[in-house]
Amino acid sequence: MSAAPIAFDVTKFLRFDEMTDLLQGYVSAHPELASLSSAGRSFEEREIWVMTLTSQKTGDASTKPAMYIDGNIHAGEVTGGNVCLYTIDHLLSNYGSDERVTHLMDTTTFYIVPRQQPDGVEKYLTTPYTLRSSVRHWPTQEEDHGLYEEDIDGNGIILQMRVPDPNGEWKISDKDPRLMIKREPDDVTGTFYRIYTEGMLRDPRPEPLKFATSPYGIDQNRNWPANWSPWQKGGGAYPLSEPETAAVARFIEDHPNIVIVQNYHTTGGVILRSPCAEGDQTLPKADVEIYKAMGEIGERLTGYPCTPVYDAFPMTDDQGRRATSGGFIEWTYGHKGILSFATELWDIKSRAGIERDANDTMRVVKEETEDDGLKLLEWNDREMGERGFVPWTPFDHPQLGKVEIGGWNSKLVRQNAPPQFLEDECERNLQFSLSQAAMMPQLSFKSIETESLGNELHIVRATLENRGFLPTTGSALGTRLNLPPLSVKVEGAEVLIGRPKIETGHLPGRSSALTGRNRPGQFRVENERLIEVLVRGSGEMTITAESDRAGTTTETVTLA
Questions:
Q1: CATH architecture of structural domain 443-559
Q2: What is the mean pLDDT of residues 279-308?
Q3: Which of 134, 128, 124, 32 is closest to 76 using CA atoms?
Q4: pLDDT tens digits, residue range 316-325?
């Protein structure tokens, strides 16, 4: 392409205005490939930007199967936003020179939302504070009593405080004085500590000291209609109560060509997929096989294991009720039939050489051991020049007396990928997105034949096929949701036998072979449909096939 390259630095996390300038710059440089719109506005009136990427020369974005990609539904997980921006940059800068990128941009559409929660990200990037999603106070506007996080030593980072206490649950490791380890049940001698977040008390010290509840209680990944519960922590007052989730839901509803959703989070290094509330046995068998096939490719490209959300998180009580409900991909798959993935980016533990248990992909069962902590500190010293861990330093707390402040700089190394690792995270996950997009259904006319009968009468025989891996419904669940059927429209000639618009049902993709016999010659994918009409006319006639999720294709034939 002749457009000037855009200066995108993947090693930086951009503030909202910087990101806006970058996105607008891409559109100015590539007007034939990119357009920028807003899905809606956030609580603080920031735009929720949507970048639409496709070659407009080969058709409007709405006439092609689409992949939706987003990041930062959780404010502090800013690595996801960088993967989104990296994906935009790669698609635009490689169109015309990279065969695969060019093919995908010609035949499919990408809707990319780099920042689903712009307000929370801005607070995260510009202050020492952390928060889950929105800056809107919920469930109460009043500030809670107890210990709240605050940068009391003024170094711009909120760390931890360790306070000597004979009843403390922690002690200092004999192997590294920086490392705090759990006190053993039979430990009765030595110095023990309580560990708190760095902060202040909102009122005179209570006994016992308690943590104040964060005013930022909204978790926008619990605010979606599927399995939403009023008892779900962070779920909001009702499904889609937040302007950001409501805006994204409207966007997805208004774009029925979306086939795949890729949602980015941190941390853990795992590709999560549906189902969320129940096991694989509750899904259509065809979708389970599709998810497994896609997951295997994702594992190979990213190095992350792929697992259902249901299997990644343990149950919470004897009734089998889950710790989480109302999730984004729970809604996009369960209610919309869109194949959906949520990738937890950045796995510091694997980088440090800590093995992952096969049955604990999210590492939610096994606690961090002393050996784990030592490996993490060794990694920090080797890869980060010790910058990821702040040494414990004495401090006179105005309310608690003598404490020590230190610990992991979580924003820098634990919650997000450090700058030198960002490009690698982005590149590996970009490659999975390209593979996902290449699997979408694609309508095409395999052949069109005309037979002249004289007196301007013609038999027209068109063979329509789905060249994609996925079915034209996008998923087997999509079939159950009564999506509009494929339709074939004939224009430019009078249809005498048949109809000008023919509904043909849906076509499977190559994925249907996953549930068939594996030996050659014993299974054939029936991904074709013959349409036959008798018409009267002469000159040019067009025949158009349309599908919400498989796109639109048009061919012109000349009637002699």
A1: Sandwich (2.60)
A2: 96
A3: 124
A4: 655 555 657 8
Question: Residue 2: its pLDDT value, please?
Answer: 45
In a 3-state reduction of DSSP, which class is residue 522? coil
pLDDT mean over 483-511? 94
- Band the pLDDT of 208: cuts 50, 70, 90: confident
- In order, the DSSP letters of 102-150 are HHHHHH-EEEEES-S-HHHHHHHHHSS---SS-SS-BS-SSPPSSEEE-
Measured between alpha carbons, how far is 332 from 66 in angstroms, rounded to an integer? 14
Looking only at the bridges linking them, the beta strands covering 401-408 and 160-164 are: antiparallel
Closest CA to 262 of 228, 289, 301, 227: 301
Q: Please state the φ and ψ torsions of residue 113, each to the nearest 5 degrees.
A: -115, 95
* Strands 401-408 and 389-397, sheet pairing: antiparallel
Q: Is 317 helix (H, G, I), strand (E, B) or coil?
A: coil
Its pTM surpasses 0.90? yes
Burial of 20 (0-12, 13-18, 19+ CB in 10 A): middle
Q: For residue 185, what are the contacts with CB-CB under 8 A and spacing of at least 6? A: none
Enter the DSSP assignment of 78.
T
Separation between Cα atoms, residue 18 and residue 6, nearest integer Å: 13
- CB atoms under 10 Å from CB of 316, counted, come to 11
Categorize the per-residue pLDDT at 1 as very low, low, confident or very high, splitting at 50, 70 and 90: very low
Q: Which of 255-264, 513-522, 541-550 has the lowest mean pLDDT?
A: 513-522
User: Is domain 16-126+219-346 in CATH 3.40.630.10, yes or no?
Assistant: yes
What is the C-alpha to C-alpha distance for residues 380 and 477, in angstroms, rounded to an integer?
45
Between helix 118-126 and helix 16-29 the angle, nearest 10°, is 120
The residue type at 551: G
Rounded CA-CA distance 129/28 in Å is 35
Report the distance separating Cα 79 and Cα 13, nearest Å: 8
Kindly report, residue by residue over 222-232, the tens digit of the pLDDT: 999 999 988 88
Domain ranges (residues) in the chain: 16-126+219-346, 158-216+351-414, 443-559
